[in-house]
Amino acid sequence: MIKEGAYTYIDGRTPVVPYTGKYAVKTPDVFDRIRDRWAQVDLAEAPYRPLRIEFELTTKCNDSCPSCGMGALSLQAGRSLSDRQLEHLIEEFTDVGLPCVAITGGEPFVAMRALLRFMARARSAAVEINKLTTNGIWGSKRRCGPTFDQLIKAGLLDNQLFVPLLMVSIGEQTTRLEDVARIIHHTVTEFTERDLNIAISSLADPSDREHKIYPLMRLYEKTYGDFPHDRVHSTMRVYLDNERLENQAPIHRPGQTPVSKWMDTCYDCFAPTVGSYVLPTALLKADGNLYACAAFNVPEKLGFGNLFRERLRDIIARTNRSSYVATVRAGGGLKALHDVIPRTETEKMTCGSFCGSCSLLIDTFEQRTGETGPGGPALPFVPADALWSRLSAAGGRRD
């Protein structure tokens, strides 16, 4: 399989090779075209602008993974964004010249009506679907082909800048592996790498690091023949703690790593990048809270506003006033913070993930500089029931 990390293209550093990488682009001048979009909406001079926003279409999910890092809810308790909310997002995305979005959940395919409606509206607004994440619930023999047909009719293959990516997540999910294999087979036999990419996100328990990707490959080869290693992109990770979620199962991660090591290996998350990733990227939760990073366990203090209460360009402006973001962005990653927090200290600080180190560093940065940043304190935790009763006035629905 094609491992994550290959084919990374950073604006101004390396020439872009079309149709390579998990997040492949269709044109070598992709960054020029994106800058033209930003210039048209008067954001050409903004230091930070998201290249992509990953947003929760729904919090409903057919599954109940104990270690879910997104906080997905049951089909009964979850909610999907309303037509009015989706239209609002399109307007806000267009207003800032956003090139593309990634759609996640919950499970987007349990909100099929909302998914197809958003895709069709995004196509008309020239906001491309860069990634669509799913647990493969629709991969049965009866549903697989017709679902692909619906996605194509809604515009999945109509992108001008990005090759769309279908990301199938396996781990604690209960989706049958034969259904996941069917989705892979349909993708690689009906579409070329210029039409549609496919990736498997394999999440493992950190205590044993066992991945379902291996039995999936064996099943595929037994059913269809050779596994298409040259077409399937691989993302292999472990479950992580998420500070936003009160009900997430405790995750035991053996060993702790010095924060200095996390800092040294942190990639430049604010440099415009395509190929292996699409950066800078932001996370939009279904409640409207927007974070300046799309990692599912992003620190709360990287939340800079709520898109259902204010304009996206105002949230971007607030993010650009954050001293923490500016320091990380200007220095090419978390290692830039060593100018504020000496390495002698970060070598003694330990945690279990990049996001954990970022959270520790934000707190220490604020203590040292006395600046909490324009984002203010962490966004308050709001229980799901109270949150959705509050959002019902904005048109939230059970879809």
State the gist of this model:
The protein is an alpha/beta fold and 399 residues long. Helix content is 32%, strand content 15%.
Strand content: 5-15%
Catalogue the unreliable spans: 375-394
Radius of gyration: 20 Å
Question: What's the average pLDDT?
Answer: 88
Q: Tell me the strand order in the biggest sheet.
A: 1-8-7-6-5-4-3-11-12-13
In the CATH hierarchy, what is the class? Alpha Beta
Profile the largest sheet.
10 strands, mixed
CATH fold-level name: TIM Barrel
DSSP helix fraction: 25-40%
Number of helical stretches of at least 4 residues: 12
Describe the structure.
The strands form three sheets. A ten-stranded mixed sheet has the order 1-8-7-6-5-4-3-11-12-13, covered by helices on one side. Strands 2-10 form a two-stranded antiparallel ribbon. The protein has a single domain (2-255, 268-319, 380-394), classed as TIM Barrel. Helix 2 (83-95) runs parallel beside helix 3 (112-124) and helix 5 (177-190) packs across helix 6 (213-224). It has 399 residues and is an alpha/beta fold. It has helices spanning 30-40, 83-95, 112-124, 144-153, 177-190, 213-224, 259-265, 312-320, 323-331, 343-346, 354-369, 384-391, and strands at residues 2-3, 9-10, 52-56, 100-104, 128-134, 165-170, 197-204, 232-238, 257-258, 273-274, 281-284, 289-291, 303-306, 350-351. The chain is built from twelve helices and 14 strands.
